[in-house]
TrEMBL record:
<protein>
    <submittedName>
        <fullName>TIM barrel protein</fullName>
    </submittedName>
</protein>
<dbReference type="InterPro" id="IPR050312">
    <property type="entry name" value="IolE/XylAMocC-like"/>
</dbReference>
<keyword id="KW-0119">Carbohydrate metabolism</keyword>
<dbReference type="Pfam" id="PF01261">
    <property type="entry name" value="AP_endonuc_2"/>
</dbReference>
<feature type="domain" description="Xylose isomerase-like TIM barrel">
    <location>
        <begin position="78"/>
        <end position="255"/>
    </location>
</feature>
<dbReference type="InterPro" id="IPR036237">
    <property type="entry name" value="Xyl_isomerase-like_sf"/>
</dbReference>
<dbReference type="InterPro" id="IPR013022">
    <property type="entry name" value="Xyl_isomerase-like_TIM-brl"/>
</dbReference>
Length: 264
């Protein structure tokens, strides 16, 4: 299923615009775009929302016919248990996380112990935990950890854009992760020369215009055949003013949705 995530609303959620969108606003906008899946990913207010606010957001999502997924950072068992309780309110069947959090950088053996502890509750609840590929952990180490644990409820959230900062190639990451991928983050990316030719900026690009060989990902991972959701997000730099940035963010979302729908 094609979905939108909070990173597709990054600037519209931010305080750099005059009227930041609420989570419920993003739900309604998602449904208006004909999308039925939303991933609440690294959305700081999620864990500080009251029980009533959480229940209200979940009720709106249900009324709109939206499937919800959650996203967080870290593998500390207590934290993952808290997120799992939130997942239950939203009836979410997938939680995306990352091996490290600001307050926790476990070694691989420590992460394995934490994950084995946390996964007991996830397995019982029928919720999948998907760990994202990113530059702080080698892709081979992350996949090896998942293979070592061997749980049907643990896999990869595949984001090939992130691994470039580790001097890994997106194509190699896709191929290494394919068997254990459970979720995909969809965005294009490119390098651009800095002014004066003194380096490059690595950031987002409209889908289909950058360096991401998405057809290779689709062929290798086979997300549509395997029921793996594709979550749209962006690395959109600030465009100089709120109006232009918001308009560009919306345009990039429409472009990505059109690209994905044209390839199904």
């Amino acid at each position: 299923m094609i979905g939108l995530g909070t990173y597709a609303y990054f600037w519209r959620h931010s305080d750099r615009v005059d009227q930041p969108m609420s989570l419920i606003d993003a739900f309604r906008d998602t449904r208006a775009l004909g999308v039925e899946l939303f991933q609440i990913c690294d959305y700081a207010p999620l864990l500080t929302m009251s029980a009533g606010e959480t229940a209200e957001a979940a009720a709106v999502a249900r009324d709109l016919g939206l499937v919800i997924q959650l996203g967080t950072k870290g593998v500390m068992p207590d934290h993952l248990d808290t997120v799992l309780r939130r997942a239950a309110v939203f009836e979410a069947r997938l939680v995306r996380s990352m091996l490290y959090a600001p307050e926790s950088r476990p070694s691989l053996p420590e992460a394995e112990r934490m994950l084995r502890t946390a996964l007991r509750a996830y397995e019982s609840a029928g919720v999948t935990l998907a760990l994202e590929t990113y530059e702080q952990v080698a892709t081979d180490d992350l996949v090896g950890l998942i293979e070592q644990i061997g749980s049907d409820h643990l896999g990869i959230c595949l984001d090939p854009a992130n691994v470039v900062a580790r001097l890994e190639t997106p194509r190699a990451a896709v191929e290494r992760c394919a068997p254990v991928t459970r979720n995909v983050h969809v965005k294009d990316f490119a390098f651009a020369r800095q002014d004066g030719w003194v380096g490059f900026t690595y950031s987002g690009a409209p889908m289909g215009t950058g360096l991401h060989d998405y057809p290779h990902l689709v062929e290798t991972v086979r997300p549509r055949e395997r029921g793996i959701d594709e979550i749209v997000e962006h690395w959109l730099p600030w465009q100089g003013d709120p109006e232009t940035t918001v308009r560009t963010e919306r345009d990039w979302t429409r472009t990505t949705l059109e690209y994905l729908r044209s390839t199904t």
